[in-house]
Amino acid sequence: MNINTPAYVIEEKLLEKNLKVLDRVQKEADAKILVALKGYATWSTFDLLEKYLSGATASGLWEAKLANMKPWEVHTYCPAFKDSEIDEVADISHTVVFNSFNQLERFENRVKDKSLIGLRVNPGVSSSPVPLYDPCAPFSRLGIPKVNFKADKLKNVSGLHFHALCEQLDDALERTLEGFEKLYGEYLKDMEWVNFGGGHHITREGYDVEHLIEMIKAFRSRYPNIKDVYLEPGEAVGLNAGYLVAEVLDIIDNGMKIAILDTSAEAHMPDVLAMPYRPVVRGAGEPNEKKYTYRLGGVTCLAGDVIGDYSFDKPLEIGDKVIFEDMAIYTMVKNTAFNGIKLPDIIIKRKDGSIYKAREFHYEDFKNRLS
Ligand SMILES: Cc1ncc(COP(=O)(O)O)c(C=O)c1O
User: Fold this and answer.
1) Which residues contact 26 (CB under 8 A, 6 or more apart)?
2) What domain of life is recorded for the organism (predicted)?
């Protein structure tokens, strides 16, 4: 593929493979799946997403507006809505989820005739691998803890929402659901819908989709009054459906061989440093597994802007392409132009094999974010 670098490439064929798995869950479990735009918001592919998913879930007004590009369900949850934005959020949302009884009491009358109202509750079951991604950690601000739950204030509330997982398999949902029902099961008899949040790695190899379907069915049979069961994964939608292509700009030897690329962990794949994790590089192995080992580094000034150490069968050369796998999720939505480096192009490989450059970024994009 002859493309300018850096570039994120999303392959529709791979995306559709994920969407088909998610659609199976929708159909067999009678559930609705929403794409979490915080994780995957590449709207050039919304036509494809729309064929399979029931809607999109937004983190606030701007994502809700993006979700509203399609006539699907728009669900909006925010840790705290602003007075100046809540009316527009309610106008375009099918469902608005509040994070506290303060927010519910402040805004419910402005929302109730336009959208369904939900509350995010905290199921109190920690299972995320690191505290940064654990909404059930002590003193968490995300989700109402049971001690603060006010059963007499639910007049306008039609559903409960929880989100406590991060890149997890079905067993983690089982534990979380158990905790959720123990704390909030008694209120579900008066609800019409429940949202199991995101963090379900449904499209990852090893995820027991059958078990997920069984769990949702069993939940439905325990609460026959619940009309809609929602899941809102971001990662599972775009998992392994895209990659980041970069080019080797220089090779130096400061005690070990270092390749400097026209990309950056900090700016273009921030979760590499935040999680942190070591992305898979196409054709490369662990350090010293293959003959030629290099540290792959970014082009910014940050000393820690290092993606990792990798080995290759052949020596790297200036101009070579390096491909980082699984870069469709939490990249385009989180990247920055730190150091004024160019944001990667967004390229879609269509199902028929054709290449479509959906977006190219220019100096003006960088300048216009500043003043
Ligand atoms: C409330 C909520 N819903 C959904 C998601 C999507 O999670 P994931 O992309 O891990 O599936 C998140 C992620 O942080 C979230 O906070």
Assistant:
1) 32, 33, 52, 53, 54
2) Bacteria
Ligand 1 atom with the smallest distance to the CA of 166 is 10
Question: What SS3 class is residue 207?
Answer: coil
Phi, psi of 52 (to 5 degrees): -115, -40
Tell me which architecture the domain covering 240-368 has in CATH. Answer: Beta Barrel (2.40)
For the chain, how far is it from start to end, CA to CA, in angstroms?
37
CA of 10 to the centre of ligand 1 (A): 20
To test the pocket of ligand 1, the residue of 21, 163, 168, 169 to mutate (highest count of ligand atoms within 8 Å of its CB) is 163
C-alpha 232 to ligand 1 mean position (Å): 7
Beta strands 55-58; 242-253: pairing state: unpaired
**DSSP secondary structure string for all residues of 22-68:** HHHHHHHHT-EEEEETTT---GGGHHHHHHH-SEEEESSHHHHHHHT
CA distances from 131 to 89, 136, 166, 343 (A): 30, 9, 11, 29
> What type of residue is 271?
D
- Please enumerate, by residue number, every residue annotated as part of a binding site for substrate: 235, 271
Tens digits of residue pLDDT in 98-130: 999 999 999 999 999 999 999 999 999 999 878
Secondary structure of residue 282 in the 3-state scheme = coil
| CB 179 near ligand 1, within 6 Å | no
Residue ranges per domain, the chain? Answer: 12-238, 240-368
pLDDT in tens, 186-229: 999 999 999 999 999 999 999 999 999 999 999 999 999 999 99
For the chain, residues with pLDDT lower than 50 are none
Query: How many angstroms is it from 4 CA to the middle of ligand 1?
Result: 31
Q: Which CATH number fits domain 12-238: 3.20.20.10, 3.30.470.20, 3.40.30.10, 3.20.20.70?
A: 3.20.20.10
Q: Is the previous residue joined to 6 through a cis bond, with omega within 30 degrees of 0? A: yes
Whether 12-238 and 240-368 share one fold: the answer is no
